[in-house]
Automatic annotation (TrEMBL):
Residues 112-291 form the Histidine kinase domain. It comes from Anaeromyxobacter dehalogenans (strain 2CP-C). CDD domains: HisKA. It comes from the Bacteria. Its EC number is 2.7.13.3. SUPFAM superfamilies: Homodimeric domain of signal transducing histidine kinase. InterPro entries: HATPase_C_sf, His_kinase_dom, HisK_dim/P_dom, HisK_dim/P_sf. This is histidine kinase. Keywords: Kinase, Transferase. One of its GO terms (molecular function) is phosphorelay sensor kinase activity. It catalyses: ATP + protein L-histidine = ADP + protein N-phospho-L-histidine. Gene3D superfamilies: 1.10.287.130, Histidine kinase-like ATPase, C-terminal domain (3.30.565.10).
Length: 307
């Protein structure tokens, strides 16, 4: 049994003639649709790995350049009595699946931890109220303890607010039929505020609840925003500035991130690819524009102004 993220498939007979190929297979390898057999053989002439795979003489999976030399794809050959099934997929497709599984698992853990912390906090609030009642019998004791009790109440409220933001971003809901992009972005930025301050990154946020709405899935969008913003904070050098903004532009709900990032790490392309694929799956797009030392990331999502 094969588990994969497949972009396209084709079936070839023992002579290497392409019996059938879907558009994803042709696009993934950059083959012309008029003569897929000739195009596949022509490409194999310049690729020993592809030539060996088609002949069944090499490993069952080969890494090849994608269409127009952009990116890398994996081509898998699955033998059959009448020929072979060829599957083409992004080379990092398996990593994307693992990333998605890890993200889903962490979301569930975050929601569970928040619930486990919230119960003791509620108990603390109740005990503080009972303690204040008992102290009220002694005006002197009540007055002496008032500031301390108030400080404890404030801290409980503060922790409750952090937990609310965590749950709303990690596992948000959309009971009214739309996702509040402004609220999600504001909460994600608040959760990352400590990390930004620790890195001495000035995080400027222009996002307001109710102002920008999308029809995109709330949970998936929450993870995308949190991951994208966390990556932006991590790649902004110490003392730098990161500006994020949510707005509506025509039929799109748009999130813009502007920064002057440091040197890209070896995993920058992987993270960009995962985020772009996630945006596309939500019916939108993620565009990264670099001009000089500045970088603008523009996330576009289907807009939904349903009340």
């Amino acid at each position: 049994m094969h588990t994969y993220l497949s972009a396209g498939a084709a079936f070839v007979d023992p002579a290497g003639t392409v019996i059938a190929a879907d558009p994803g297979f042709l696009a993934g390898l950059g083959l012309e649709g008029g003569d897929p057999t000739g195009a596949l053989r022509a490409r194999a002439e310049g690729s020993p790995a592809l030539r060996a795979l088609l002949a069944g003489e090499g490993p069952p999976v080969a890494r090849l350049e994608g269409a127009d030399g952009e990116g890398t794809v994996e081509l898998e050959r699955i033998p059959a009595s009448a020929g072979a099934l060829l599957l083409v997929r992004p080379a990092d497709g398996q990593e994307w699946l693992e990333h998605a599984a890890r993200s889903d698992g962490l979301t569930r853990i975050a929601a569970g931890v928040a619930h486990d912390i919230k119960n003791p906090l509620n108990a603390m609030s109740l005990q503080l109220a009972l303690l204040a009642e008992k102290l009220a019998a002694s005006p002197e004791a009540s007055g002496a303890a008032a500031s301390h009790l108030g400080a404890l109440r404030d801290q409980v409220v503060r922790v409750n607010e952090v937990l609310r933001r965590l749950v709303d971003v990690a596992d948000p809901s959309a009971p009214l039929g739309y996702t509040d992009v402004g609220a999600l972005l504001a909460d994600a930025a608040a959760l990352l505020g400590h990390d930004a301050r620790r890195r001495r990154v000035a995080l400027a946020v222009d996002a307001h609840p109710g102002a920008v709405r999308s029809g995109a899935d709330a949970a998936r969008l929450g993870r995308l925003l949190l991951g994208t913003l966390a990556r932006a904070v991590a790649t902004t050098p110490e003392g730098g500035r990161l500006a994020v903004r949510a707005a509506t532009e025509g039929e799109w709900a748009v999130v813009r991130l502007e920064q002057r990032p440091g040197d890209p790490g070896p995993e920058s392309g992987y993270y960009s690819g995962v985020a772009a694929a996630a945006a596309e799956a939500l019916g939108g797009s993620l565009e990264v524009i670099r001009e000089g030392g500045e970088q603008r990331s523009v996330l576009r999502l289907p807009r939904n102004d349903r009340s």
